[in-house]
């Protein structure tokens, strides 16, 4: 099995003769050789124990102890990966910082008894994962995530938490609802969750090793040819062309930018076109790349997303307009509260 | 964008990302997804259950972005935009439902709606 995988990897190298030596050393390593099963599965079990301890439950619930045990367990999982990692294949320190914050905060989301704090910890998870997005060079999505999630969705959650809380009785302002104090089947849930983790990490270790090696080169550089405005701006900033000169377009409106030659045809209004050399470091920024991918490759999906949002808005309006009747128990509780209030006044 | 954020984002880019590093990101994503599953199954408050589904969306987003960086194309990032859209739609509908259910029974306990089953 293992030798077969190696032969396949060697086949990839043969098929890509232009890939240099530096790249070949960075090719995906056979991950089953570098991860340490004792640390990985031991950390998995320890993490499960910690999360089971951290969930709120009847009787004693040692949340701090649980969090510490879970941290040790999850840390062991990552250490199990780092120990035998081939040179240069380890993520940067920032990765560990953001990952610890994201996972710790998401553990707190499911273990904090008060919903408001759970929502605030979820915002922390969002901030940390947008840090991970930045490490993955996805700047646009990192900031869109903060704006959409932390700025919009979570505020909706906070509003609903404020709308949907029982009016506290004055004597027990700090009391929590019964359903917030105890979780349901914490041990069974955690065991199921970590069986999922063990299976997923095993499959990942196999599958990632079999992925084709990544190719070098900036993504979609060819699309620079569709951005005459950007090229003009860069040429103008480097004073290669004057303010009135524009990039020539052919009869179909396609700008005359030749990336393989590294030249572009420019002309002043009414003047003769001539070729200028493009600067060597033309790159497509992340936002431009995402824009091209969204609008050129997936135009249909945008339409569908628009329909989904419209339907959600209509549905929310219809749901919110509906007049609700209290069921018997809630009505009885309300009547009792009114009667108690009236008696309090008469006394 | 601040210079620091740009420096963090553009370090090592557009060099290819080694598979071992991809595995680290995927492990974070898998762990976050499992934490979301555990929370969804074990917590009883409806609002926290929906927060846990958002955690699972978030985990899927990290995996998509990591693959997008590994293969050096932007399709994964584009799909995270659609994940955000679906999450926003889901949040609006689910929270409207939660408010409706709360007004009827004055409790957020998921098991108080057990008679809906069947």
Attribute tags:
heterodimer, A: 347 residues, mainly alpha, 3 domains, four-stranded antiparallel β-sheet, 63% helix, 4% strand, flat, disordered N terminus, B: 118 residues, Helix Hairpins, 4 helices, 75% helix, elongated
What would your notes on this structure say?
The complex is a heterodimer of chains A (347) and B (118). In chain A, 63% of the residues lie in helices and 4% in strands. Chain A has helices at residues 2-15, 21-25, 31-34, 37-54, 63-82, 93-111, 115-135, 139-163, 178-181, 186-210, 228-237, 286-297, 299-321, 328-346, and strands at residues 246-247, 257-258, 263-267, 274-277. In chain A, strand 3 (263-267) and strand 4 form a beta hairpin. Chain A starts with a helix and ends with a helix. Chain B has a single domain (17-107), classed as Helix Hairpins (Orthogonal Bundle), CATH 1.10.287.3510. Helix content of chain B is 75%, strand content 0%. The mean pLDDT of chain B is 86. The chains are: A mainly alpha (347), B mainly alpha (118). Chains A and B meet through helix 5, helix 6, helix 7, helix 8 and helix 9 of A and helix 1, helix 2, helix 3 and helix 4 of B.
CA(first)-CA(last) distance of chain A? 85 Å
Structure class of chain B? mainly alpha
Tally of individual domains of chain A: 3
Global mean pLDDT of chain A: 78
Topology:
The complex is a heterodimer of chains A (347) and B (118).
Chain A lengths: L1 H14 L5 H5 L5 H4 L2 H18 L8 H20 L10 H19 L3 H21 L3 H25 L14 H4 L4 H25 L17 H10 L8 E2 L9 E2 L4 E5 L6 E4 L8 H12 L1 H23 L6 H19 L1
Antiparallel strand pairs in A: 1-3, 2-3, 3-4
Helix pairs in contact in A: 4-5, 4-10, 6-7, 7-8
Chain B lengths: L2 H8 L8 H24 L3 H25 L4 H31 L13
Helix pairs in contact in B: 2-3, 3-4
Outline:
Chain A is mainly α and 347 residues long. Chain A is 63% helix and 4% strand. In chain B, 75% of the residues lie in helices and 0% in strands.
């Amino acid at each position: 099995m293992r030798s077969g995988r190696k032969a396949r990897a060697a086949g990839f190298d043969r098929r890509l003769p232009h890939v240099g030596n530096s790249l070949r050393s960075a090719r995906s390593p056979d991950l089953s050789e570098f991860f340490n099963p004792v640390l990985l599965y031991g950390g998995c079990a320890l993490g499960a124990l910690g999360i089971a301890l951290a969930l709120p439950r009847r009787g004693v619930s040692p949340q701090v102890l649980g969090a510490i045990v879970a941290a040790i367990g999850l840390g062991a999982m990552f250490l199990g990966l780092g120990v035998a990692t081939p040179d240069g294949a380890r993520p940067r320190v920032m990765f560990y910082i953001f990952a610890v914050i994201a996972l710790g905060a998401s553990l707190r989301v499911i273990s904090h008894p008060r919903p408001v704090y759970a929502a605030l910890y979820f915002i922390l998870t969002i901030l940390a994962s947008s840090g991970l997005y930045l490490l993955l060079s996805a700047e646009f999505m990192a900031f869109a995530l903060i704006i959409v999630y932390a700025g919009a969705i979570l505020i909706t959650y906070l509003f609903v938490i404020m709308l949907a809380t029982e009016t506290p009785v004055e004597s027990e302002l700090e009391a929590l609802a019964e359903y917030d104090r105890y979780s349901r089947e914490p041990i069974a849930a955690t065991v199921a969750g970590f069986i999922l983790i063990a299976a997923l990490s095993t499959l990942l270790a196999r599958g990632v090793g079999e992925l084709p090696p990544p190719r070098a080169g900036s993504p979609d550089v060819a699309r620079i040819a569709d951005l005459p405005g950007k090229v003009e701006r860069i040429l103008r900033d480097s004073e290669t062309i004057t303010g009135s000169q524009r990039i020539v377009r052919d009869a179909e409106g396609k700008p005359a930018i030749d990336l393989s030659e590294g030249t572009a045809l420019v002309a002043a209004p009414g003047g003769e076109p001539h070729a200028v050399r493009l600067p060597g470091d033309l790159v497509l920024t992340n936002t431009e790349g995402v824009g091209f991918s969204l609008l050129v490759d997936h135009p249909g999906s945008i339409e569908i997303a628009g329909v989904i949002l419209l339907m959600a808005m209509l549905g929310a309006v219809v749901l919110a307009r509906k007049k609700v009747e209290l069921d018997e128990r809630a009505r009885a509780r309300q009547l009792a509260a009114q009667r108690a209030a009236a008696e309090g006044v008469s006394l | 964008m601040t210079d620091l954020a740009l420096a963090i984002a553009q370090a090592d880019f557009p060099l290819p990302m080694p598979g071992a590093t991809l595995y680290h990101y995927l492990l974070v994503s898998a762990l976050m997804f499992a934490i979301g599953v555990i929370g969804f199954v074990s917590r009883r408050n409806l609002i926290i259950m929906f927060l846990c589904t958002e955690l699972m969306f978030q985990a899927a987003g990290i995996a998509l972005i990591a693959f997008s960086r590994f293969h050096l194309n932007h399709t994964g990032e584009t799909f995270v935009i659609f994940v955000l859209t679906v999450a926003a739609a889901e949040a609006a509908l689910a929270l409207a439902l939660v408010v409706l259910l709360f007004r009827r029974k004055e409790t957020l306990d998921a098991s108080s709606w057990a008679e809906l089953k069947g």
